[in-house]
Amino acid sequence: METKNNWKAWLYLAPMLLLMSVFTFYPLINAFIISFYKGYRPLQNSIEGFTLLGNYLLILRNPLFWNAMKNTFVIAFISVPVSIFLSLAIAVGLKSIPKLNKFFQTVFFLPYVTNSIAVGMAFAVMFHKNYGLINAILERLGFAGRIDWIGGTSSWWTQMVALLIFTVWESLAFKILVFTSGMQNIDKQYYDAAKIDSASKWTVFRRITVPLLSPIILYISITSMIGALKAYNSVIGLFGVKLGNPSNSMITIVAFVYKYRAELASPGYYSYAAASAIILFIITVIFSLIQGAVSKKRVHY
Amino acid sequence: MDIKMVNLTKIFTSKNRKEVQAVSHVDLTIPSGKLIGLLGPSGCGKSTTLYLIAGLLKQNEGQIFFGEDEVSEMPPEKRGIGLVFQNYALYPHFTVRENILFPLQNLHVPKEEAKQRTFEMAKLVGLEEMLDRKPKELSGGQQQRVAIARALVKKPRVLLLDEPLSNLDARLRLQTREEIKRIQRETGITTVFVTHDQEEAMSISDEIVVMKDGVIQQMGQPQDVYDHPVNLFVAKFLGSPQINVFDGVIEAGKVLIDGMAVGATELPDQKVVIGIRPEGLQVDKTALSPFKFEIDLVETIGRDTTLIIEVTSEESTLLDKKTFKAIVDAENRIRPKDVIHFVVKPEKMHIFGLDGKHL
Fold this sequence. Notes:
The structure holds two protein chains of two kinds.
Chain A: H1 2-34, E1 37-38, E2 49-50, H2 54-60, H3 63-95, H4 101-113, H5 116-126, H6 133-140, H7 156-184, H8 188-196, H9 201-229, H10 233-239, H11 253-262, H12 269-298
Antiparallel strand pairs in A: 1-2
Helix pairs in contact in A: 1-12, 2-12, 3-7, 3-9, 3-11, 4-7, 5-10, 7-9, 9-12, 11-12
Chain B: E1 3-13, E2 19-30, E3 35-39, H1 46-54, E4 61-66, E5 69-70, H2 76-79, E6 81-84, H3 96-106, H4 111-124, H5 140-152, E7 158-162, H6 170-187, E8 190-195, H7 198-204, E9 207-212, E10 215-220, H8 222-227, H9 232-237, E11 244-251, E12 254-257, E13 260-264, E14 270-276, E15 281-283, E16 292-294, E17 297-301, E18 304-310, E19 323-329, E20 339-344, E21 349-352
Parallel strand pairs in B: 3-8, 3-9, 6-7, 7-8
Antiparallel strand pairs in B: 1-2, 1-4, 4-5, 9-10, 11-12, 11-14, 12-13, 14-21, 15-20, 16-20, 17-18, 18-19
């Protein structure tokens, strides 16, 4: 009986396992192997030997990689908490306007179904020094000096602010959707009880909604942290292939991987890309483990 | 402090725009310091009335007063009420202590005092040992008591309980209803509780209010309401087993069921509906009474015997059901198939008009 069930289980899993083997496990293992090659030429499929940590050490000595690390971490550590907080606030706000709820839910979900490269280009126009909406608004508010956000004279700071605004905006949609449906699963009686218990709106949010939503908040923070660590589309969308001003100032880890992967003619570059991809993979795993451990203490139920 | 409701009306509109009057022009005064049971079948508007008092629902018409203080337009947090929800609504992520403390924190009661009051409340409901547990680590009865403590800790003017016992098993229900009675006595707080269980309401209430279709049928001390129901609905709703109801006529001062005289009356001749409590049917040992039946089933439980009589005839005068019941002393030793003559205790017989009103 038991063996029969096992056999069936494997059968049902087979299609998924096959696809995952081809598109996930094989590339992952292959990336590992490639990261140990020396002087790898992908077009000729030839190598000059093996090295255990050579490629990794080269990357770690590459200032561009550290620039990518810095940008990626700034994006992850700022955009994730900010977008979680904003989307929670919006979801709570949506709940209190039941009549327009459906309409705004659609409005907020639109960014999710639009192409981020296209939206990035729209944002690039908004952040334009002379014709952009952002500077126009700032001028109206009394800030006279036009800021060059992402143009030829822009600094790392202004570019990062623009990128963060874009990233947060883009990632709100999915979070609002998940939080809204999560809140619908919270028993209405807790809110009635809180009303009877004279809890203020802020207290209700802080001590009832957030704790009861904590499993979902954890899920969102893990997935969006992983998503932010893989930031790439938003950078290309906003800054184009130059990746910022000066070139590569807004580079992220994935952009770094892609940059080296694209240099097929240069021997060994492909291995740098593989090695940096593995580093990103390890960082991602470490983050998930940390968040999982934190959740055991902080997440209720 | 008493609770006064004047012309209170709540209308719900369903999806197909049909309006339902859940509570219809209710005038009711709940006396200060009493434990009142709001009783009725499901959908009768008793819970709606409770939530109107709490302020979680807003009336379409009418006013509510707590003493001299009109609260009709006040939000729930301003009314000074404690409410125990049907499934308790304890915050699952708080400990018992945090649950009880929560209202005090919201009212900015000084820390030391809040701590003291939380402990006193826990003691009142007998949970001072459980303060650091989470609700899911408690039994249903204990959760119930935490909910009561949370409701009482802020010293509300009124305590409201929504079906407080319906989520408990039978044994715990008996225990908890005594507990509620005790807590109410000790605190002397005006308490309203909602239930569909007439036995529960009658056993602990100082007074009961029977509702049907959003309208109050009768209010009074449980035994008074049981002994003097104003209409057929109240008579049928109170008492277990239910009152036996027959078609009957009054002819020349005699009350007749199927031509058999069961009592005398001063009412004029007319068609009536006759209700006889099961305990009002007594065995006539002289066998002279014309009111006789063949017994179908006998259930003896301790001191009482329940006789069950099936009525098969097509033109039966028995209303609603196919059987009726009599509760007699066990010493009678009656067996199925015996033919028993009954006499009817006059005070256990109620005569209603065809419109259901008590005559």
